[in-house]
Amino acid sequence: MDALTLRTERLVLLPLGVPDLDEAAALYSDESVMRYADGGTRDRPTAARQLEANERCWRSDGWGLWAVRNAETGAFIGECGFRRITDVPGATVEFSCTISRRNWGQGFAAEAGNAVLYDGWDRLKGDLVHAVVPHDNRAGGQMLRMLGFRRLEDQLIHGEEQQVWDLQRLN
Ligand SMILES: CC(C)(COP(=O)(O)OP(=O)(O)OC[C@H]1O[C@@H](n2cnc3c(N)ncnc32)[C@H](O)[C@@H]1OP(=O)(O)O)[C@@H](O)C(=O)NCCC(=O)NCCS
User: Which numbered atom of ligand 1 lies nearest the CA of 112?
Assistant: First the structure.
């Protein structure tokens, strides 16, 4: 994988991959966080498969999810970036951000999300990115609004009412 790095004031981001398995598996096993994520909690083998798929996405398309870490200590904070989406008509790329519970409310999603989106328009081929969150996910919706996303009509996805958002390339 390329030695890609994004840096912000407090964060360093590198493509998320198999070396991040311990920390990602811990994040994916936390029910208080993953109740808002597509599919809920994931076990370690599922986490490993997803990290491998994310590495393949970086290799084939040049974009994917980033591991978000504290720039000073290297501590894992969460993940943020892009993945393929197939369940929303007209959507191909989904923006996603998941921050570990103890790091909520400190502006990390805002800081990581802005960096990922700014960088992402150079990597993505299309002009539109979507995001999907459960209808009762206030924090997720507020984060998306703050990042500039526009809320579309809610949709029934996998039997659940979900907020659907999109963000258009500006230039
Ligand atoms: C959504 C999530 C990523 C936000 O992470 P965070 O680092 O706590 O968010 P930030 O501190 O950067 O705040 C971003 C915005 O969301 C708002 N926000 C954060 N938590 C909130 C809450 N519980 N209720 C309402 N708004 C909230 C903040 O006020 C801020 O908006 P503002 O700038 O207008 O004030 C985090 O709660 C999470 O990982 N949730 C589970 C996964 C998820 O829902 N992801 C979203 C789908 S992409």
Answer: 12
